[in-house]
């Protein structure tokens, strides 16, 4: 009688110990991505219809191109989400090298120059491709691979950190000198530093580095503004324009000033969707990095808050995936994607509000740019793939 009672209890205990695991998929992240894509397409059409009609005789020009690329990229994202993210580890070095090769091609006769910047490679059907976007995803896959290859202990050592910084610095330098894209170079290097920060146990060196960097930047800005007022260097001119946009309205400050006018005229609830006046040829290339100013004009501060909240939810979901990934490689990949999105959103908002000099950073999922949306959705597909590997207890 006693044995009959003990056996079911033991079986129950063994069943509890062997909890059933269920596969997780971050549908919350997927929904936020869809919201951002749809919102971005609506705002892109509202922002670009007038300029597209004037330039191409078709108000749907920018919208239709972006919609086609977005639809194809979304399908690709779903496919990538079903691929085990460990698949990319053996090819991380090759992807890193491919980024250099593609950026080097920009300096050949194949390179396409747009608005004075030579950063693109031509594609069929009138499309173009920006190789510097490959550098972002290359560093997101390559640095975590290096950290896992070295092991956490070695990666935290002085030699390990210097090695990681060297690879990130080389990639950032290639972006800067091969594609003349300072903003992307900053993002690539910042992603590297953030990934090192995640694996390094002590935060004090990073705080000191941040303070020292802020002091150095402040001193450099003051020095340049005093001694290089008449410089012909376009990057120094951007700093001068940033400091005094009103005084340089005819030499770079015009776009910034008009963007600020658009933000101020929108008030809290805006003029209404489609009712912007600053988009009517006043702000140059408004569908690109200045699209947030039109969002503020048409939807007001309330609309801008909604955008920031959506990005906040997106970043939170990526943080959830990074914290719950089953291994270090998946966690670091999700962290790298999170860092990219957070950095790009922060830089774009700072540029539009004139908190930093203009850098040409687009607003993810919303600004016009086929290469940008393609690689953003590739990154989201990889993040969703990491989320699939998370196992939850069925309790």
Q: Residue share in helices? A: 55-70%
Distance between the termini: 31 Å
Count the E strands. 5
Query: SS-based structural class?
Result: mainly alpha
- Uncertain segments: 1-6
Q: Can you write the helix and strand succession as a string?
A: HEHHHEEEHHHHHHHHHHE
Could you give a short account of the major beta sheet? 3 strands, antiparallel
Mean pLDDT: 84
* Shape by Cα distribution: globular
The strands making up the biggest β-sheet line up spatially as 2-3-4
Strand content: under 5%
In DSSP terms (H or I, runs of 4 or more residues), the helix count works out at 14
**How many structural domains does the protein architecture include?**
1
In short:
By secondary structure, this protein is mainly alpha-helical.
Description:
There is one protein chain. The chain is mostly helical and 395 residues long. It has one domain (23-393). It is 68% helix and 4% strand. It is built from 14 helices and 5 strands. The chain has helices at residues 2-17, 27-56, 61-81, 92-105, 132-150, 152-155, 158-179, 182-199, 204-227, 234-243, 253-266, 291-324, 328-352, 370-388, and strands at 21-23, 112-114, 117-122, 128-129, 391-393. It has a 3-stranded antiparallel sheet with strand order 2-3-4, covered by helices on one side. Helix 3 (61-81) runs parallel beside helix 14 (370-388), helix 5 (132-150) runs antiparallel to helix 7 and helix 7 packs antiparallel against helix 8. The longest helix has 34 residues, at 291-324. The protein is globular and about 55 Å long. Its EC number is 2.4.99.28. It is a multi-pass membrane protein. Belongs to the SEDS family. FtsW subfamily. One of its GO terms (biological process) is cell division.
């Amino acid at each position: 009688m006693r044995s009959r009672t003990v056996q079911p209890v033991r079986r129950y205990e063994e069943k509890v110990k062997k909890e059933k695991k269920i596969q997780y998929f971050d549908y919350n992240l997927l929904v936020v991505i869809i919201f951002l894509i749809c919102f971005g397409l609506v705002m892109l059409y509202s922002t670009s219809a007038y300029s597209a009609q004037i330039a191409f005789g078709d108000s749907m020009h920018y919208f239709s191109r972006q919609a086609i690329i977005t639809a194809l990229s979304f399908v690709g994202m779903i496919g990538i989400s079903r691929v085990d993210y460990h698949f990319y580890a053996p090819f991380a070095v090759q992807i890193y090298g491919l980024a250099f090769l593609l950026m080097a091609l920009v300096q050949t006769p194949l390179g396409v120059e747009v608005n004075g910047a030579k950063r693109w490679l031509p594609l069929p059907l009138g499309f173009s491709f920006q190789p510097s976007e490959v550098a972002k995803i290359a560093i997101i896959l390559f640095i975590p691979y290096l950290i896992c290859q070295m092991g956490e202990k070695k990666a935290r050592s002085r030699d390990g950190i210097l090695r990681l910084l060297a690879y990130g610095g080389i990639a950032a330098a290639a972006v800067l000198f091969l594609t003349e894209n300072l903003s992307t170079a900053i993002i690539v290097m910042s992603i590297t530093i953030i990934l090192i920060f995640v694996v390094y146990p002590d935060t004090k060196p990073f705080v000191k580095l941040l303070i020292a960097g802020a002091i150095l930047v402040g001193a450099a800005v003051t020095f340049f503004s005093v001694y290089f007022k008449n410089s012909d260097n376009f990057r120094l001119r951007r700093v001068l324009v940033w400091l005094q946009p009103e005084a340089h309205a005819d030499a770079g400050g015009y776009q910034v000033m008009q963007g600020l006018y658009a933000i101020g005229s929108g008030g809290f609830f805006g003029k209404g969707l489609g009712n912007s006046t600053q988009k009517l040829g006043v702000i140059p290339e408004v569908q690109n990095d200045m699209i947030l100013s039109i969002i503020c004009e048409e939807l007001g501060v309330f609309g801008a808050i909604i955008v920031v909240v959506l990005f906040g939810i997106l970043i939170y979901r990526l943080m959830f995936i990074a914290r719950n990934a089953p291994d270090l490689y998946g966690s670091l990949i999700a962290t790298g994607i999170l860092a990219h999105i957070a950095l790009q959103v922060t830089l774009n908002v700072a540029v539009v509000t004139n908190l930093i000099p203009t850098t040409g950073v687009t607003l993810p999922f919303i600004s016009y740019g086929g290469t940008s949306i393609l690689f953003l959705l590739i990154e989201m597909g990889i993040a969703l793939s990491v989320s699939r590997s998370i196992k939850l207890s069925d309790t």
